[in-house]
């Protein structure tokens, strides 16, 4: 009876060794807790009389943990919302997103036609070339900051290689 018990124990040990070895390997390949990267942030100048404008950036999660983006703020901007574009009944419209999941080793690009920040209530007139500060807030309390550049629509078009800015209509 005792021997039978011992035998079972030995089997369990042998089976678990490969798992232990694997866990150790993964442990050696650990990333920094704050392995998030925020890049390419820009905000469009407000068009005269417009109540809002859009801002874009990329955020990469190089860590092994999922992050949840809860909120974004931009200095000198009264209110910022996270938006997405959705297609419903052949129409494209946008709606606010309360939280956005950023999976491990994934990048989310905020770009025209997709996710974007909607900026409302600027504290002052934003001039082309101004640098503001973008802050992202995550569910685990982490924050990410980056300068965010004010661009004109014309700059943005030329960056994307569709520069029609020389067309003048008189
Ligand atoms: Cu929007």
Provide an overview of this structure.
The chain contains 2 helices and 10 strands, in the order H-E-E-E-E-E-E-E-E-E-E-H. It is α+β, with helices and mostly antiparallel strands. It has 2 domains: 1-30; 36-155, Immunoglobulin-like, CATH 2.60.40. Strands 1, 2, 3, 4, 5, 6, 7, 8, 9 and 10 form a 10-stranded mixed β-sheet that branches. Strand 9 and strand 10 form a beta hairpin. The chain is globular. The N and C termini lie far apart (100 Å). 17% of the residues are buried. The model is unreliable at 11-31 and 162-170 (pLDDT under 50). Bound molecules: copper (II) ion. Residues 83, 94, 116, 118 line the site of copper (II) ion.
Spell out the blueprint of helices and strands:
Layout: H1 2-28, E1 36-44, E2 52-61, E3 67-74, E4 77-88, E5 91-96, E6 100-102, E7 107-109, E8 116-122, E9 131-138, E10 143-151, H2 153-159
Parallel strand pairs: 1-10
Antiparallel strand pairs: 1-2, 2-7, 2-8, 3-6, 3-9, 4-5, 4-8, 9-10
Bound molecules: copper (II) ion.
The site of copper (II) ion has 4 residues, from β8.
What descriptive keywords fit this protein?
170 residues; binds copper (II) ion; Immunoglobulin-like; ten-stranded mixed β-sheet; single chain
């Amino acid at each position: 009876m005792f021997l039978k018990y011992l035998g079972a124990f030995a089997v369990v040990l042998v089976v678990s060794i490969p798992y232990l070895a694997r866990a150790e390997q993964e442990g050696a390949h650990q990333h920094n807790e704050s392995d998030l990267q925020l890049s390419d942030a820009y905000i469009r100048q407000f068009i005269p009389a417009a109540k809002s404008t859009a801002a874009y950036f990329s955020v990469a999660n190089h860590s092994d943990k999922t992050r949840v983006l809860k909120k974004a703020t931009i200095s000198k901007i009264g209110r910022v919302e996270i938006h997405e574009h959705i297609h419903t009944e052949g129409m494209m419209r946008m709606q606010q997103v309360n939280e956005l999941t950023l999976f491990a080793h994934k990048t989310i690009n905020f770009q025209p036609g997709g996710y974007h920040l909607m900026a409302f209530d600027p504290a002052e007139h934003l001039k082309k070339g101004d640098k503001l500060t973008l802050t992202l807030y995550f569910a685990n309390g982490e924050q990410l900051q980056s300068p965010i550049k004010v661009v004109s629509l014309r700059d943005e078009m030329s960056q994307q290689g569709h520069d029609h800015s020389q067309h003048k209509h008189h």
